[in-house]
Amino acid sequence: MLVLDGERTRAALPWGELIDAIAAMFAGECVMPVRHHHDMEVPGEEEATLLLMPAWVPGRYAGVKMVSVFPGNAKRALPAIFGTYLLSSGTTGEMLAAIDGGELTARRTAATSALAARYLARPDAAELLVCGTGRLSLNLLQAHATVRPIKHIHVWGRNLVSAEKIAAEARELGLPAKAVSDIETAARAADIISCGTLSSEPLVRGEWLKPGAHLDLVGGFKPSMRESDNEAIRRASVFVDTRAGAMKEAGDIVQPLKSGVLKENAIKAELAELVRGTRSGRSAAEEITLFKSVGAALEDLAGAILAYETVTGRK
Q1: Which DSSP letter does residue 163 get?
Q2: d(C-alpha 246, C-alpha 241), whole Å
Q3: For tag attachment on the chain, is the N or C end more exposed, with fewer CB atoms within 10 Å?
Q4: Is 200 in the same domain as 272?
């Protein structure tokens, strides 16, 4: 059985190929039950979360990701997310690979945002704001820069030192990034705003969004979590990775639906419809678009298959 640690997983998932693999999986016939979501008590700290995400392509591959999210790890200088992906044969059930789940999650999440941006961000989008300084942030920088001609990148976080660290790492990769302390000023100028935080209160205000802006929300995965406000929902054309997941788990969608700010039929499309061409994405240069992602098991399966086939040379 192949075992891929974080470094080998990262190397096996180059951005262009990963984005294309996820697009192909959304367009294909993957079977994807709604993920299992369990809250876990951590004495003296915020609750942790256990996620189990199965998916399979009949006759080809099957897999499941087990992920834990411990917000309290920030105080321990540890990543909030740990996990493992188990990939097996869809013909025999033979276990094929164990893949680092944290690295897989970070890269497929960012790649899915970039895939959505292909349809929703302006083709000339050049200024990117990334909100958050966790594991996702550097991945989001790289992924968005793969699909749009990004010339300026701002990184905002509650801790400016952490934002400066991410910006420095991005510059080492050749990306034009710098840290900022004023989120409003950066958001008002941004063509793409990508949020990857664990915030329970809105960070980005709809009034800050300029005509033609694209707002990418990937951090929140519970109904109680939120990265944008109601005005952002009112002003934007709303898209999601999957309706089933977003309308159940995403606070940025669940809360506006509950309050009546957003109607279910106002969600323009889910990502599979954009990829398949059955629904359209951005329709005008001045349109404001919003994409909410909670993660889909097929994204993990696509990344796991790509990593396995890249390393082994099997197809």
Answers
A1: H
A2: 7
A3: C
A4: yes
Nearest to residue 139, comparing CAs of 112, 107, 168? 107
Q: Is 144 helix (H, G, I), strand (E, B) or coil?
A: helix
What CA–CA distance (Å, rounded) separates 266 from 248? 16
Q: What is the CATH number of the domain that holds 286?
A: 3.40.50.720
Tally Cβ neighbours within 10 Å of residue 305.
22
Domains contained in the chain, number? 2
User: Contact, 96 vs 314, CB < 8 A?
Assistant: no
Q: Which domain holds residue 306?
A: 2-104+298-312
Tokens (6 digits) for 246: 């977003």
- The whole-model pTM stands at 0.91
Same-domain check for residues 83 and 140: no
